[in-house]
UniProtKB/TrEMBL annotation, chain A:
<dbReference type="GO" id="GO:0032447">
    <property type="term" value="P:protein urmylation"/>
</dbReference>
<protein>
    <recommendedName>
        <fullName>Cytoplasmic tRNA 2-thiolation protein 2</fullName>
    </recommendedName>
</protein>
<dbReference type="GO" id="GO:0002143">
    <property type="term" value="P:tRNA wobble position uridine thiolation"/>
</dbReference>
<comment type="function">
    <text>Plays a central role in 2-thiolation of mcm(5)S(2)U at tRNA wobble positions of tRNA(Lys), tRNA(Glu) and tRNA(Gln). May act by forming a heterodimer with NCS6 that ligates sulfur from thiocarboxylated URM1 onto the uridine of tRNAs at wobble position. Prior mcm(5) tRNA modification by the elongator complex is required for 2-thiolation. May also be involved in protein urmylation.</text>
</comment>
<dbReference type="GO" id="GO:0016779">
    <property type="term" value="F:nucleotidyltransferase activity"/>
</dbReference>
<dbReference type="InterPro" id="IPR014729">
    <property type="entry name" value="Rossmann-like_a/b/a_fold"/>
</dbReference>
<dbReference type="GO" id="GO:0016783">
    <property type="term" value="F:sulfurtransferase activity"/>
</dbReference>
<comment type="similarity">
    <text>Belongs to the CTU2/NCS2 family.</text>
</comment>
<keyword id="KW-0819">tRNA processing</keyword>
From TrEMBL, chain B:
<protein>
    <recommendedName>
        <fullName>Cytoplasmic tRNA 2-thiolation protein 1</fullName>
        <ecNumber>2.7.7.-</ecNumber>
    </recommendedName>
</protein>
<dbReference type="InterPro" id="IPR011063">
    <property type="entry name" value="TilS/TtcA_N"/>
</dbReference>
<keyword id="KW-0694">RNA-binding</keyword>
<feature type="domain" description="tRNA(Ile)-lysidine/2-thiocytidine synthase N-terminal">
    <location>
        <begin position="54"/>
        <end position="242"/>
    </location>
</feature>
<dbReference type="Pfam" id="PF16503">
    <property type="entry name" value="zn-ribbon_14"/>
</dbReference>
<keyword id="KW-0963">Cytoplasm</keyword>
<dbReference type="GO" id="GO:0000049">
    <property type="term" value="F:tRNA binding"/>
</dbReference>
<comment type="pathway">
    <text>tRNA modification; 5-methoxycarbonylmethyl-2-thiouridine-tRNA biosynthesis.</text>
</comment>
<keyword id="KW-0819">tRNA processing</keyword>
């Protein structure tokens, strides 16, 4: 699976150092282990220019948040950054930034979430960083001033006396499909990470998304009716959530990171959470398949033969321009993307369905964008999603 | 279990599960709702105006047959006051159009609409059979595709008709949105999402000029499955053969994805169309205020036509393999510090004016609220007219005229077809396997 193991590769010499024998072919180049690891690090660190030592004041440490999901990508990123910080320190005596590693605990939510025990393992292996863990449902506490997120909850659970740990399952159970649940979980996770980053006074968030993941996201968000939000969702820089987003692994393919996990010394695989087999098989029946699953499968096969097409998708969606927004531009209550022209809900456009419903006031006042309205239809309050 | 009542009339027994939203309807309500949605599309987008003469592209297939039936019904019911005629194109492939043209002829009688059948020989001086004789089976698909793209416009011009409606449905549009994301063609993505396209050359005073033809897609939001259901329940007479030729790799791959998406979430097709419309507004150089819905419409020349009469010699997957090769080369060059520009047209050999796609990874440094986008806008794509025929083209001479010149000079091959063929056969074969695998990524239906 990792990289392209071409038969007869052992006889080839590494194209870069011209010394060692190659262990895999990366985008037509046969590389040895060392040169491959260097290739991965260079690609990632190139994206971290603004966090160089000389850009940070000696008396004030810059803090950045690294959310870890224990997938191949975020584990790789942690390893790369840990190594990078050590190099900075040995060269200059200090580092350009400090890492705060955040784990969102989604136990009991979604399919086969990673075990919290992995966090201790990470702490052991990379002890120099700050680690913190927070349960997903606390998103409802953290955004307490932002009542619009609470308004999307089914009526019974928006009751303030209900503990947030009980609100989340009520919300998820009210959703009609696996796609909707996965969508809402991902959005809540992002919002929780953002809130936590602000609370911990981090100046930005480092996301682990690979090229492949960003391509998946491009097509998945398009399929969910959130094409309007793409420029906000995959670009480096100030995000719509009021904090900087960075994607240091945006120039690396998923399969390259899979290879990297194996080739890192020592191997990173003990830190990687593999969703259980049953969870995977379950996801293959259409009832449990999500749009994200489809895109993952799809790009896995594209990546195998057409890696440059994968990066071109990301480059292409990166060319979409953000519509200028101001402080008065309304945001979606769930995903928080800016919604221009008041185009909330799924009604009031050419593709309107004649389902006898005038763009309802509730739909508008709930303030959900088109895509979020698909995931949380108006009926969800009485448990009757379409 | 008692029969489920129709979700709309609550009286009749529900017999149809509506593909769009899985609501359970009786036959009468389904037909009603299907027609009403198309009426909504027509009125909301002001597609027609009273007194207008409109040619419907008629192939005898389900889309164009349903289009003719629905437009006739709606024109009478809502008194649009438009004159509807049928226009069929005969590529001149022996046997290929016989059955479908018979269907169109019956439709013309059934709907009491005038029908004109125009052959490639009348429009271009060559039938496809003659083209194949001349250039061989390899690459003739290029000719067919290029000729087909202009045929309806040329035909309409002959009839003095200014407006052509086509049967493109929501599935087609959604497929094209994904396909253009996959091959990195934002200008075309933005064009194909508009419900109205036109060749904006108001300057032309020649009433016969086919540069003033407006095109629209009243079925833009109608699901393919519902079109089939409608045809079935109205007992419409249509010619049902699937195109036996495989679509080009990007389209085939996007089509499979759309089918799977529909299975997972029925609204997904509509949702992709909506995303496409929204994204069209964010494409650099697009007119922000109009996006995909402007009544003046986007240029039509580059519009996709699905399916082709003959695709012999086309390498399945060759298109993707070629693009991959090009992109990989450019990545390498970029890494070596060279500035590279590449056009999607150079890659696919199809999109002759898709605009340049700078491969340099341009960072979005400015995405701040106050930042005005205008300053960063690249110049608008330049769309000129073919100096020979006046058809919209980014080149001095349009593709059809180039091909015709080649044919007329008795030149057997043309450089244009290069795009379809992979460099070496082995490579092409493995790519073909890869793409057919892509197409087969299917999930089980429940
Ligand atoms: Zn080496
Ligand atoms: Zn939203
Ligand atoms: Zn009914
Ligand atoms: Zn021409």
């Amino acid at each position: 699976m990792p990289g392209k193991h071409v038969s007869g590769i052992a006889e080839q010499t590494c194209r870069r150092c011209k010394e060692n024998s190659a262990v895999l072919v990366v985008r037509t180049e046969p590389l040895c282990r060392d040169c491959f690891v260097k290739y991965v690090h260079t690609k990632a660190i190139k994206r971290m220019e603004s966090f160089r030592v000389r850009n940070s004041a000696p008396d004030q440490q810059r803090k950045i948040l690294l959310p870890i999901s224990f997938g191949v990508s975020s584990v790789s990123l942690l390893n790369i950054l840990d190594h990078h910080l050590k190099t900075q320190k040995s060269k200059t005596g200090r580092t350009g930034f400090a890492l705060v590693v955040l784990f969102v605990d989604a136990t009991g939510v979604g399919r086969s979430p990673p075990d919290k025990a992995l966090l201790d393992l990470a702490k052991e292996r990379f002890p120099e960083h700050e680690y913190t863990s927070i349960p997903l449902h606390e998103v409802f506490d953290l955004v307490s001033e932002d009542t619009s997120l609470l308004e999307i909850l089914p009526t019974i659970s928006s009751n303030k006396s209900l503990p947030s740990s009980e609100r989340l399952p009520v919300l998820l159970n009210s959703l009609a499909s696996a796609t909707a649940r996965a969508d809402v979980i991902t959005i809540l996770r992002t919002r929780l990470i953002v809130e936590q980053a602000k609370k911990l006074e981090c100046e930005g968030i480092l996301w682990g998304d690979s090229t492949t993941k960003l391509a998946e996201k491009t097509l998945a968000e398009t399929a969910k009716g959130r094409g309007f939000s793409l420029p906000w969702q995959i670009a480096d820089g100030e995000s719509h959530l009021g904090i900087a987003f960075n994607y240091p692994l945006r120039d690396l393919l998923k399969k390259e990171l899979v290879a990297y996990v194996d080739m890192a010394d020592p191997s990173l695989s003990p830190l990687v959470h593999e969703p259980s087999k049953t969870a995977n098989q379950l996801s293959m029946s259409s009832k449990n398949t999500t749009i994200d699953d489809l895109m993952t499968q799809y790009f896995e096969s594209v990546e195998a033969n057409f890696p440059s097409i994968v990066s071109n998708v990301v480059r292409t969606s990166g060319k979409l321009e953000v519509t200028p927004i101001s402080t008065s531009t309304p945001h979606c209550s769930l995903c928080s993307n800016p919604v221009t022209d008041g185009r909330f809900g799924i009604h009031g456009w050419g593709g309107d369905q004649e389902d006898g419903l005038v763009p309802s006031l509730t739909e508008r006042s709930k303030g959900l964008c088109y895509g979020c309205t698909r995931s949380i239809p108006r009926q969800s309050a009485n448990g009757d999603g379409a | 279990m008692p029969p489920t009542p129709c979700a709309l009339c609550k009286t009749n027994r529900a017999l149809i599960v509506r593909p769009k939203d899985h609501s359970k309807l009786c036959k009468a309500c389904f037909i009603q709702v299907f027609e009403t949605e198309i009426h909504h599309t027509i009125t909301a987008n002001k597609l027609f105006h009273r007194g207008e003469k409109i040619a419907m592209g008629a192939s005898g297939g389900k889309d164009s047959t349903v289009l003719a039936s629905v437009l006739k019904t709606l024109n009478e019911r809502h008194d649009y006051g438009v004159e509807l005629i049928l226009l069929s194109i005969d590529e001149g492939i022996k046997g290929y159009r016989d059955d479908s043209l018979e269907t169109v002829k019956r439709n013309a009688q059934q709907y009491k609409m005038p029908l004109t059948i125009l052959g490639y020989d009348e429009l271009y001086g060559w039938t496809m059979d003659q083209v194949v004789e001349q250039v061989g089976k390899k690459g003739n698909c290029t000719y067919c595709g290029v000729f087909r793209r202009q045929a309806l416009d040329r035909g309409a011009a002959r009839l003095g008709v200014k407006h052509v409606v086509t049967g493109h449905n929501a599935d087609d549009i959604a497929e094209t949105v994904l396909m253009n994301l996959l091959r990195g063609d934002l200008p075309r993505l933005s064009r194909t999402t508009s419900i109205v396209t036109s060749t904006p050359s108001a300057a032309s005073s020649d009433p016969k000029s086919h540069t003033n033809i407006k095109r629209s897609k009243p079925l833009k939001y109608a699901y393919e499955k519902e079109i089939v259901l409608y045809a079935h329940h109205k007992s419409l007479d249509y010619f049902s053969t699937e195109c036996i030729y495989s679509p080009e790799a990007f389209r085939g791959s996007a089509r499979a994805l759309i089918k799977n998406l529909e299975r997972v979430r029925p609204s997904a097709i509509l949702d992709v169309v909506r995303s496409g419309e929204d994204m069209a507004k964010l494409v650099p150089g697009s007119d922000d205020s109009c996006g995909g819905n402007c009544a003046n419409g986007a240029p039509a020349a580059e519009e996709e036509e699905g399916g082709c009469g003959s695709s012999n010699g086309r390498t399945a997957g060759g298109e993707m393999a070629n693009m991959e090769q090009q992109l990989a080369q450019n990545e390498l060059a970029t890494e070596n510090g060279l500035e590279v520009e590449i056009t999607a047209g150079a890659i696919s050999g199809q999109s002759h004016s898709s605009g340049t796609t700078p491969l340099r990874n341009r960072e979005k440094k400015t995405k701040n609220k106050s930042e005005a986008v205008a300053s960063r806008k690249p110049p608008k794509q330049v769309m000129g007219k073919c100096s020979r025929c006046g058809y919209l083209s980014s080149q001095e001479v349009c593709k059809a005229c180039v091909l015709l010149e080649g044919l007329n000079k008795n030149r057997p091959k043309n450089a244009i077809q290069v795009g379809y063929e992979a460099q070496d056969t082995d490579n092409a074969d493995s790519m073909a396997t890869a793409t057919s695998r892509l197409r087969n990524v299917q999930i089980q239906a429940d």
